[in-house]
UniProtKB/TrEMBL annotation:
This is Cellobiose dehydrogenase. Residues 319-342, 487-501 form the Glucose-methanol-choline oxidoreductase N-terminal domain. InterPro entries: Cellobiose_DH-like_cyt (IPR015920), DOMON_domain (IPR005018), FAD/NAD-bd_sf (IPR036188), GMC_Oxidoreductase_CD (IPR053208), GMC_OxRdtase_N (IPR000172), GMC_OxRtase_C (IPR007867). Coiled coil: none annotated. SMART domains: DoH (SM00664). Pfam families: CDH-cyt, GMC_oxred_C, GMC_oxred_N. Residues 209-229 have a biased composition (Low complexity). Its cofactor is FAD. Keywords: FAD, Flavoprotein, Signal. Residues 206-229 are annotated as: Disordered. Residues 1-18 form the signal peptide. Belongs to the GMC oxidoreductase family. GO terms for molecular function: flavin adenine dinucleotide binding; oxidoreductase activity, acting on CH-OH group of donors.
Length: 774
């Protein structure tokens, strides 16, 4: 009965919607709705609202419909886009009737009857036949809920749907219990355009004459995307770089510095204040510093009700905004070590001399392990406790980035790429030097669907912005090049949509009516795009100790921070808010029985993302040790796209290899081997009722995700086992390159951004040096 997938996928994996609602006319009722057809289950969701009114009997109602193949045993709609804390509608067919109810969930548990005033009425347009149930309903009192929230019918929102192919426990009972949904998804909807002046007619059963052709919403999208827009002449560029994450920004800065004419395209919008971002906490308005600037707001990225920064068409966390992952990550930052770029982990020999590039990175973007501008460290109780534990296990304390090659039995203060008490990263450094160059152009809110090619020659990129070129096509110059830096999931999808990748993925694109047209099959390039995926498996251990200040589990940092800490930060970018949640990191090397040396990393922070304890504990005293397995790990998985075109994990990469699991368990046992040596230190998750083995066995794979995807378009020696060659050029193409996490052949020893950025420096140098370019 636990809603585990939403439990795990919503808070940890982020919103995932590939679709935006569009207008369509239901062919049987003639009603015009705004909604989507989910292409996987082929369920249509539609909504239409009465003319806008702020008061009056109809101001909080709408008419909706669900058209569902009979395989849909029940369908749920979450009007606020999340399972907990918004009005849920649940319906199914029982014989020749629709059974429906309004529900509410306070957490990721079985929703129960909604206790507010909302009325569902099944309208006469409802039909059930051999293939579908088609529920048309009126929902009164449904846009304002009894917790004070609601949907704003004048602006944009997110709706979540839940699907199950397992029948409810008692189909005749509207409040029947049921097992968790077997799938779910999200879509964006612009409520302001979903009102109809025909509302009274609809209620009276009069759909009128449909004024638009009676096609489903997904088909409407297909026909509009390719034909609209004024014809403009496009400017050709020497280099078009897709994606302003760390890979794309560093490549764009170095290549424009070299005098090339560079266009950087980013699908998302502004992030930090410096980029024009304005998502400012209520307490920080005087500063204008955004959620992405203030390090102490990091944890609030995962609890916000409007997380516009996550890519809505990728089913794991990915940042879709200026800076990509580096604008929303924990900013843990490790200078690469020699092992990170060795041939042992798959780098070509030509890449092993990383030192010049790593030092270019360090001079542009130095790390700090004391991010507060006053040089002090704050909220260090968990550091003090865990350093006692680790000292008892033979660890020594070091300044981690002073000796990047020391990664065995060492711990130190967490290091970050914060600058001046704010998020730094490539956005505050490399992007700022590129922007003033006359030969550098940066466009945000531009989505690249594919590269346009003639066989192996890339002609340019297809965007959704017809002001940049005819129908959105932007060409490269005669010798020009395209660099993909869309991140592991983003770049893979662009490749598939360009006819480059495993045949099954290209066929998935081919069968999606809203995907761009592929090149002819004779021009498909079969490369292992999405294969070899790695991500660190990570396991959280949660403890309590009387000395810990769990900082209210970071729950209040956005709306109700501790006043003194907020004031201190605003005055001088110092104090608790100048740092993110991590306080200590440690590493230990393990020899495996298979001959591989694996590294375990630990990250320690006050608070906990989730706990499961059968004994009472004091939540104000919680802290977490996350244990990751990194370099040396042998498990690999596969990423790709689903039928709806969403970037997704096809085969989980975590603990597939038995020795990986053995070593990770050994590392967990070691971390807690001397708990009794620290008085009053208690492990609460797992608690005394569960062994570490049981805990790991029950661990939901989706929460083992560390968002550290690498190797999905790996560098290597041939097209049979790699996607790019040693110059990061895509095999089988003349002028297509990749500079992002995907080229990294193996997980680095620490969180990956340091290695990705050093690799971007090196890749830019190799691209510039490669003959034949502009
Ligand atoms: C929640 C979270 C926490 C993390 N914490 C850490 C950490 O503390 N330390 C660390 O080292 N690493 C961390 N990481 C990982 C790190 O941020 C990523 O490894 C890194 O950002 C990957 O860089 P990238 O250049 O490959 O891609 P990304 O950072 O993903 O950037 C890709 C960019 O391309 C854009 N894009 C994608 N597709 C298109 C398209 N079709 N058209 C136009 N633009 C497109 C995206 O919007 C995005 O801006 C974290 C990641 C996440 C998600
Ligand atoms: C069954 O209902 C669906 C949904 O309303 C409709 O599309 C389909 O045409 C109907 N089938 C028949 C045979 O009437
Ligand atoms: C292109 O896509 C981006 C990202 O989804 C979006 O923000 C932008 O509005 C789109 N542009 C157009 C012209 O539709
Ligand atoms: C595609 O390439 C071929 C040969 O490489 C060339 O003959 C042809 O003109 C090209 N077509 C276009 C549209 O550029
Ligand atoms: C929980 O911990 C806080 C802070 O250490 C303390 O003030 C409080 O009394 C504790 N509560 C209980 C029930 O022990
Ligand atoms: C441990 O807790 C006991 C009471 O529960 C207290 O007397 C003692 O001081 C605590 N020790 C430490 C080191 O916190
Ligand atoms: C919580 O822990 C208990 C054992 O203590 C275990 O049986 C149960 O499955 C765990 N629950 C979850 C959601 O992991
Ligand atoms: C072609 C061109 O305009 N190149 C310029 C790009 O920007 C750099 C740095 O400002 C100049 O040195 C180049 O001349």
């Amino acid at each position: 009965m636990l809603f585990r997938s939403l439990l795990t996928l919503l808070p940890f994996v982020g919103l995932a919607f590939s679709q935006s609602a569009s207008t369509f006319t239901d062919p049987t009722s003639g009603f015009q709705f705004t909604g989507i057809t989910d292409p996987v289950h082929e369920v249509t969701y539609g909504f239409t609202f009465p003319p806008l009114a702020t008061s009056g009997a109809q101001s909080t109602e709408f008419i909706g419909e669900i058209v569902a193949p009979v395989a849909s045993k029940w369908i749920g709609i979450a009007l606020g886009g999340a399972m907990a804390g918004d009005l849920l509608l649940v319906a199914w067919a029982n014989g020749n009737q629709i059974v429906s109810s309004t529900r509410w969930a306070t957490g990721y548990v079985q929703p129960t009857a909604y206790t507010g005033t909302a009325t569902l009425t099944t309208l006469p347009e409802t039909t059930i036949n051999a293939t579908h149930w088609h529920w048309v309903f009126r929902c009164q009192g449904c846009t304002q809920w009894n917790n004070g929230n609601g949907i704003d019918v004048t602006s944009e929102g997110v709706i979540a749907w839940a699907f199950s192919n397992v029948a409810v426990d008692d189909p005749s009972d509207p409040q029947s219990t049921f097992s968790e949904h077997t799938d779910f998804g999200f879509f964006g909807i612009d409520y302001s355009t979903a009102h109809t002046s025909n509302y009274q007619n609809y209620l009276a059963g009069n759909g009128g004459t449909p004024t638009t052709s009676p096609t489903g919403p997904s088909h409407t999208t297909t026909t509009t995307t390719t034909t609209t827009g004024p014809t403009v002449s496009a400017t050709p560029y020497d280099y078009i770089i897709v994606g302003a994450g760390p890979g794309g920004i560093i490549a764009a800065d170095r290549i424009s510095q070299a005098g090339k004419k560079v266009l950087l395209l980013e699908r998302g919008g502004p992030s930090t204040q410096e980029t024009g971002g304005n998502y400012v906490a209520p307490w920080a308005t005087s500063s204008g510093l955004t959620k992405f600037d203030i390090p102490g707001l990091f944890e609030s990225l995962f609890t916000d009700s409007n997380p516009f920064w996550w890519c809505k068409d990728i089913t794991v966390f990915a940042g879709c905004l200026v800076g990509g992952g580096t604008s929303v990550n924990g900013a843990l930052y490790w200078y690469p070590n020699d092992g990170d770029f060795s041939t042992n982990v798959g780098w070509p020999q030509s890449w092993t001399n990383h030192a010049p590039y790593t030092s270019m990175l360090e001079s542009r973007l130095p790390s700090t392990d004391h991010p507060s501008t006053d040089g002090q460290r704050y909220l260090e109780q968990s550091f003090n406790l865990v350093s006692q534990l680790l000292s008892g296990q033979g660890y020594r304390q070091i300044t981690i980035n002073d000796s990047p090659d020391s990664k065995d039995h060492v711990f130190g203060y967490s290091a970050f790429d914060f600058l001046n008490g704010k998020r730094g990263g490539p956005v505050a450094t490399y992007l700022q030097t590129a922007l003033p160059r006359p030969n550098f152009t940066f466009k945000t809110n531009v989505m690249v669907s594919n590269v346009v090619r003639n066989g192996s020659q890339i002609l340019g990129v297809q965007t959704n912005d017809s002001t940049l070129g005819p129908n959105g096509f932007i060409p490269v110059t005669a010798k020009g090049r395209v660099i993909l830096s869309g991140g592991a999931f983003g770049t893979s999808r662009i490749l598939y949509q360009s006819g480059i990748g495993p045949t099954d993925m290209l066929q998935t694109v081919q069968s999606n009516p809203s995907a761009p047209a592929l090149p002819p099959q004779a021009q498909w390039i079969n490369l292992p795009v999405g294969m070899n995926a790695q991500d660190n498996p990570s396991i959280n251990l949660v403890f309590t100790h009387p000395s810990i200040d769990a900082y209210d589990n970071w729950a209040d940092v956005w709306s109700d921070p501790r006043p003194a800490d907020a004031a201190q930060y605003l005055a001088s970018q110092s104090g608790v808010f100048a740092g993110a949640s991590p306080k200590l990191n440690f590493w230990r090397a393990y020899g495996g029985s298979d001959g591989f040396t694996r590294y375990a990393q630990g990250t320690v922070r006050p608070g906990a993302a989730s706990t499961n304890s059968s004994l009472p504990f004091n939540a104000t005293q919680m802290f977490t040790i996350t244990v990751y397995l990194s370099t040396g790990i042998q498990s690999r998985g596969r990423i790709g796209i689903d039928a709806a075109g969403r970037g997704t994990v096809l085969t989980n990469p975590w603990l597939v290899n038995a020795e990986d699991k053995t070593v990770l368990l050994q590392a967990l046992h070691d971390v807690v081997s001397n708990l009794p040596s620290v008085a009053n230190l208690t492990m609460i998750t797992p608690d005394v009722t569960q062994t570490l083995e049981e805990y790991v066995d029950l661990y939901d794979p989706a929460t083992m995700n560390s968002n550290h995807w690498v190797s999905t378009t790996t560098i290597g020696s041939s097209a049979s086992n790699a996607v790019v060659d040693q110059n990061v050029k895509v095999f089988g193409t003349n002028n297509l390159f990749i500079v992002d996490a995907g080229i990294v052949p193996h997980l680095p020893t620490g969180n990956p951004q340091g290695v990705i950025m050093s690799a971007a420096e090196q890749a830019a140098a190799k691209i510039l040096a490669l003959a034949g370019g502009p």
